[in-house]
């Protein structure tokens, strides 16, 4: 009674008004569920292939071909499969394309079916997706990592570094954690306006403040002052995270900090980041160097001992790249973006492999996202420990936060705080 009966896809819009793939999977018991997939702006070379039409519609960004693949090839392949077996659909999807990057059918097409099928199975079981994925026991709510100040590809390069975020390390519940982050963001906006930055009333792709501050150190100073202005203690109650997105800074000859008119070598960029860590309450840094500099990443991880060093573009939620990182000691945490991989099964495998290695895991949204909230359930059901979906502005961001607040209010949950015992 939980077999796939119908699969229907259509073209929807993400938060940047770009088309994305939406899909509904219906089961023989009458249960059904939909899924809309996200899309990134700051993308790595090793991500699953995103199939776009390349014609005149939406400047070539249409996804009608991907939708057609769902409605024909993928629908035919999964019809009749029993979704009560969690990986049955994903295995068929992976085998059907034949390539781990889904270059034939499109990772965006495959992921839409993968997510919708799992949600439909949870609906048939009469439980939230988080419960269906997690199984018995209290649901572990993740620590939020919330964007406050944006730069890079998310804010027209107002500053060089892509994201300056906060982690409410001293919070006792998810609701308190989110409230603290909202207070810091509001304080940052007020301080920026008082400093003459009228652009602080605008928002970047992920809801952060897209303020042209001139330098990355200035952004850290503003963020630290905002934590204090919010009535919170930097480092003890609210700590700082940085997403350097170094791929976006790499010119082939060095890392260009255009706003500061400087170009740095890998060693110099590591020194720069170490200085930020030394002078601010920074506990996490992401994408410190470009995606193929394995030796540099290992050196950065050693230099930043005691700090969470997250690989995003470096790993692209790919199991072989993660294994190489673990072998080399390049990073100590992985960002899990499901659309980088293409299926829930594949992304979950990367997350679990990282955890077996003793690494931290962060489930992440993309800069082009939708109002769909399934990512929140994944972070809980997979016991990721941390989640990063953007700021507390823009509804496609708040949809995930609101889903986590709902789970905290309606289910048996425990708030995961990987920072509680960690040195800060």
Automatic annotation (TrEMBL):
Catalytic reactions on record: (2R)-2-phosphoglycerate = phosphoenolpyruvate + H2O
Alphabetical list of SMART domains matching this protein: Enolase_C (SM01192), Enolase_N (SM01193)
Cofactors (names): Mg(2+)
Database matches in SUPFAM superfamilies: Enolase C-terminal domain-like (SSF51604), Enolase N-terminal domain-like (SSF54826)
GO BP terms, alphabetized: glycolytic process
Textual note on the cofactor: Binds a second Mg(2+) ion via substrate during catalysis. Mg(2+) is required for catalysis and for stabilizing the dimer.
Domain Enolase N-terminal positions: 4-133
UniProt: Mg(2+) binding residues: 243, 286, 312
Keywords: Cytoplasm, Glycolysis, Lyase, Magnesium, Metal-binding, Pyruvate, Secreted
Superkingdom in the source lineage: Bacteria
Pfam family membership, one: Enolase_N
Class of this enzyme: lyase
GO molecular function terms attached to this record: magnesium ion binding; phosphopyruvate hydratase activity
GO cellular component: cell surface; extracellular region; phosphopyruvate hydratase complex
Entries under PANTHER family matching the protein: ENOLASE
Record protein name field: Enolase
Taxonomy of the source species: Bacteria, Bacillati, Actinomycetota, Actinomycetes, Jiangellales
């Amino acid at each position: 009674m939980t077999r796939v009966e119908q699969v229907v896809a259509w073209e929807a819009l993400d938060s940047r008004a770009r088309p994305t793939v939406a899909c509904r999977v219906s089961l023989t018991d009458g249960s059904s569920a939909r899924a809309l997939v996200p899309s990134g702006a700051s993308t790595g070379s090793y991500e699953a292939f995103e199939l776009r039409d390349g014609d005149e519609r939406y400047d070539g960004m249409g996804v009608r071909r991907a939708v057609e693949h769902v409605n024909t090839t993928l629908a035919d392949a999964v019809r009749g499969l029993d979704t009560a077996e969690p990986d049955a659909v994903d295995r068929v999807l992976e085998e059907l394309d034949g390539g781990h990057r889904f270059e034939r059918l499109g990772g965006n097409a495959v992921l839409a079916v993968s997510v919708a099928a799992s949600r439909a199975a949870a609906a048939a079981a009469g439980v939230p997706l988080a419960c269906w994925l997690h199984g018995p026991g209290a649901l572990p709510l993740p620590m939020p990592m919330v964007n406050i100040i944006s730069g890079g590809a998310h804010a027209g390069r107002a500053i060089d570094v892509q994201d300056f975020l906060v982690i409410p390390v001293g919070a006792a519940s998810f609701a308190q954690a989110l409230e603290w982050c909202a207070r810091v963001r509001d304080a940052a906006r007020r301080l920026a306006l008082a400093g003459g930055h009228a652009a602080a009333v605008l928002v970047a792709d992920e809801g952060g403040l897209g303020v042209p501050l001139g330098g990355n150190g200035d952004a850290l100073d503003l963020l630290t002052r905002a934590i204090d202005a919010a009535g919170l203690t930097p480092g003890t109650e609210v700590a700082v995270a940085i997403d350097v997105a170094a791929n976006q800074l790499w010119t082939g000859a060095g890392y260009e900090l255009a706003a500061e008119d400087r170009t740095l070598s890998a060693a110099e960029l590591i020194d720069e980041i170490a200085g930020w860590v030394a002078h601010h309450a920074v506990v996490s840094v992401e994408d410190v160097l470009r995606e193929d500099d394995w030796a540099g990443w290992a050196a950065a991880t050693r230099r930043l001992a005691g700090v969470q060093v997250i690989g995003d573009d470096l790993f692209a939620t790919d199991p072989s790249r993660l294994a190489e990182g673990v072998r080399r000691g390049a990073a100590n945490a992985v960002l899990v973006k499901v659309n980088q991989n293409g299926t829930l099964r594949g992304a979950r495998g990367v997350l679990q492999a990282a955890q077996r290695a003793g690494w931290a895991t962060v489930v992440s949204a993309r800069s082009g996202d939708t109002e769909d909230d399934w990512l929140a359930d994944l972070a809980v059901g997979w016991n990721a420990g941390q989640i990063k979906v953007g700021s507390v502005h823009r509804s496609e961001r708040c949809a995930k936060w609101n889903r986590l607040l709902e789970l905290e209010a309606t289910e048996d949950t425990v708030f995961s705080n990987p920072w509680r015992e960690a040195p800060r």
